[in-house]
Design a protein that fits this description.
Chain lengths: 470, 345
């Protein structure tokens, strides 16, 4: 790699060097990069964290799955602490922990129970309501689907193992140590599994179940195999992060009509792909909100060069994606101050959240709340494009915690010239779930009130408090 | 009359006593909720009445439930418990081999032997909810609450025990049930004040007036219905509306055994008849008689008359509710139907 030493530290240099450095060094480097915001943006953070954790899992000297879990959660907590506002870091760590548990069968009891419970309900996974299919089969926690399948892949024929509902106990606070499986029958269940919500024991265990148990034992016997499998799962996770934008864009034509007037909050990679895909079949106008001062340059570059970095930048590369104007989209760049003025002509609003929270709210670049409020005032539907990796199991108990003040250098002139005047540049906006109409993820479109279910499907309840009890 | 007398009554278990068991249970244990009391009294009845076949048991249960619901003015909360119990029995039996009597006996024995456990679990879930919910109460915030919900009381007391959190409570106290008696919730107010939490008690008319000082509303519920709405003490609906108007989060706290399969479309779509809005003219007798005839037709449609008293309830629609805090986490109102569907279908 030429001129490695001179490169600005960032995601690329980190990923390139990941295999060369010692594990502890890599961890330290990533912590520094995250803390200094040299790696920023949910996708970059997710890729960096997943890369590091993959290496940890592969090189792990751990001789038991529990050791591995401890190791990952310890490093994970350090990473979260380094940049608590990049919720994607915590999301990836939690999903890796969930993956390890799922593959190794630790905490599998719950799943067996929930399986029993579905037997109890006289229904197997396949008889579940239709809406759950696309999600559960696609859950990255399900190592069984060893092949990476796109969102548009038809449902897999395997019976659905729906994660225990108890996992939906999302909030950034300590869960009770006793697992309370969410099943209304929990109250009446047999005491042998007490105190969890469990169906009564059937003394004739289904053959499938006992072989599963057997499998678990065998898996536990060979840690190598398990680690191999966890590694595969993590590569899937990386793929998911990588391909999320493309998968979201696949449904673009379902949401964008001809002659639509769309207002886009900035022009993120995801939004760009989404609009580009729609542009193949539709003619429409997009008002791109500049997003000054934090995202303004990136937005303008995206319009002008099809890449967030201009080609004149040191490490900027040629935009590989076509510019929207070249695709026949009528692009209008508007300043943030014009949002309300333009909104009356707009038919749809596209948001690009930085993180999505379990209650259906989202965190995005500052100014987004203004767009959402203007859209609400004009009754314009608001769509948010987000990969599932951005969906955090945290509950915004206190939105002030999300507050982050960025550099004021983007706000007019040198800092010195302002004298005693305070210049403030808040980074993020929180948008309440009521202001968003639909989330478009790589799994499809979901109402904000449905996100709790996706959280339940993707995160292990035990991991939700990770990093908060430090 | 002790409870053991009731349950050891042998084969001829009169249904009247069944009802008595329910009321005795409720009054003997202040911490018992109506659904759990109903479950426990069903278990006791089942224990006292040996049935050998499944259908016989179910028939027997059905008649018991009917008697029980007929005996109380407002059976919504109770029916959550009896429904849960019946569904549990039916779906447990469905998954077992048909006609296998040993399995049925096992299930029966499990239910009879573990009645105490069910009660204990129900009480534990209140503590779990308090554990969750205390995190909603942030440092420096003001919480408005109303009614005599025990789980809200537990939640606030738990929050008060956290030394790092200072909060204030605005407690809406209604009228007391009987003249001279203290209104519902007074005990919680005292307990909170004893723990050093500043509590303001206001009347129902002062809710809107006080809301600008309030950061969140937390209320209990008698039942949580299928669409995610809550059936709660009369007055909760208006607090919900006011909270919505002020953009203040409105949380309902309820154990999941209070989920009940009802889909009310409005205030007058509940399976009870409440004489809350009563029109009168000077010659009241005429109206009274008119009301009686109306009442008869209503009761033939399965509704029950409930006089305007302290037990009147209203329905808070789901769009006013920010979240439902249950023992298994914070649910959005739309999650309730999924849970109910899981046990019914």
């Amino acid at each position: 790699m030429p001129g490695k030493g001179f490169r600005t530290p960032g995601l690329e240099s980190f990923v390139d060097n990941l295999d060369e450095f010692k594990l502890e060094r890599s961890t330290e480097v990533l912590i520094q990069l995250l803390a200094r915001r040299q790696i920023s943006g949910s996708k970059n953070c997710a890729i960096a964290v997943a890369g590091l954790l993959l290496r940890i899992v592969q090189d792990s000297p751990a001789n038991s799955v529990q050791d591995l879990l401890d190791q990952v959660s310890q490093i994970g907590q350090r990473l979260i602490a380094a940049q608590p506002r990049e919720l994607a870091v915590g999301n990836i760590v939690r999903r890796v922990l969930g993956l390890i548990r799922e593959v190794s069968g630790i905490g599998q009891d719950d799943e067996i129970r929930s399986e029993l419970s579905s037997m109890l309900d006289g229904q197997d996974g396949l008889n579940r309501p239709e809406m759950l299919h696309s999600i559960s089969t696609y859950s990255p926690l399900r190592h069984a689907a060893s092949e990476f399948t796109g969102a548009s892949t038809p449902e897999s024929p395997q019976p659905i193992k729906r994660p225990n509902f108890a996992q939906s106990g999302y909030s950034s606070f300590a869960m009770p140590s006793t697992k309370t499986a969410m099943n209304l029958f929990g109250l009446l269940a047999e005491p042998s599994y007490s105190p969890t919500g469990t169906p009564p024991i059937t003394n004739r265990e289904s053959p499938a179940l006992s072989t599963k148990n057997l499998n678990i034992i065998q898996e536990q016997a060979s840690i190598k195999e398990t680690i191999q499998e966890i590694g595969d799962g993590m590569r899937e996770l990386l793929d998911e992060v990588d391909l999320a934008a493309e998968q979201i864009s696949e449904s673009a034509t379902d949401y964008i009509n001809s002659n639509d007037m769309i207002m886009a909050q900035g022009l993120s990679d995801t939004t760009h792909k989404f609009l580009a895909e729609a542009a193949r079949k539709r003619k429409f106008t997009v008002f791109v909100v500049e997003g000054e001062p934090n995202e303004g340059q990136a937005t303008r570059n995206m319009i002008l060069y099809g890449s967030a970095k201009s080609p004149s930048d040191d490490d900027g590369q040629e935009g590989t994606t076509k510019r929207l104007v070249d695709l026949g989209v009528n692009v209008v760049l508007i300043p943030d101050s014009a949002i309300f003025a333009i909104m009356s002509t707009v038919t749809k609003v596209l948001l690009a959240p930085q993180a999505v929270l379990a209650n259906g709210g989202l965190v995005a670049n500052v100014g987004t709340s203004m767009i959402a409020a203007a859209a609400q005032a004009h009754k314009v539907p608001v769509l948010a494009l987000s990969g599932v990796y951005k969906l955090s199991p945290l509950y915004p108990l206190d939105t002030d915690e999300l507050r982050e003040i960025g550099s004021a250098s983007g706000l007019g002139g040198s800092v010195g010239s302002w004298g005693k005047v305070n210049v403030m540049n808040p980074m993020w906006d929180y948008v309440e779930p009521e202001k968003v109409n639909l989330y478009i993820t790589n799994l499809g479109g979901h109402a904000p009130s449905y996100l709790y279910r996706i959280v339940a499907d993707h995160y292990d309840k035990e991991d939700i408090n990770l990093g908060t009890d430090m | 009359m002790s409870l053991s007398d009731v349950s050891s009554n042998g084969n001829s278990y009169p249904q009247v006593l069944k009802v008595a068991t329910y009321h005795a249970l409720l009054s003997s244990d202040a911490d018992l909720t109506m659904p759990v009391a109903a479950i426990e009294s069903l278990v006791r009845a089942l224990a006292a009445h040996p049935t050998s076949t499944i259908s016989e048991t179910l028939e027997y249960l059905k008649s018991l439930v009917e008697t029980l619901t007929a005996s109380v003015p407002n059976p919504i909360s109770l029916s959550a418990g009896t429904d849960l119990f019946q569904r549990y029995l039916i779906s447990s039996l469905q998954t077992r081999q048909a006609g296998s009597s040993t399995d049925f006996d096992m299930l029966r024995r499990h239910l009879i032997n573990n009645a105490r456990l069910f009660v204990q679990r129900a009480k534990d879930s209140r503590n779990i909810i308090a554990g969750f919910g205390k995190n909603f109460v942030r440092d420096g915030c003001t919480v408005l609450t109303a009614g005599g919900s025990r789980v809200v009381g537990a939640l606030l007391k738990e929050s008060a025990s956290r030394s790092a959190v200072r909060f204030r409570v605005v407690y809406v106290l209604g009228q007391s049930e009987t003249p001279g008696a203290r209104p519902e919730g007074s005990d919680t107010v005292d307990a909170l004040r004893a723990q050093g939490v500043p509590v303001a008690t206001i009347g129902e008319g002062a809710v809107a007036y006080s809301l600008s000082q309030v950061d969140m509303v937390i209320v209990g519920a008698e039942g949580v219905v299928e669409n995610g709405g809550a059936i709660s003490r009369l007055g909760t609906y208006q607090i919900g509306l006011l909270a919505k108007a002020h953009s203040i989060p409105f949380y309902v706290v309820a154990e999941s055994h209070k989920f009940v399969r009802l889909f009310p479309l409005g205030q007058y779509d509940l399976p009870i008849e409440q004489q809350v809005v009563e029109f009168k003219v000077e010659n009241e007798k005429v109206v009274d008689e008119l009301a009686k005839t109306v009442d008869l037709t209503k009761s033939s449609r399965g509704k029950r008359k409930l006089s305007n008293g302290p037990h009147a309830v209203d329905f808070t629609p789901p769009d006013l509710i920010s979240g439902i805090i249950t023992e298994s986490g914070v649910l959005t109102p739309s999650a309730v139907s999924e849970e109910l569907i899981k046990i019914w279908f």
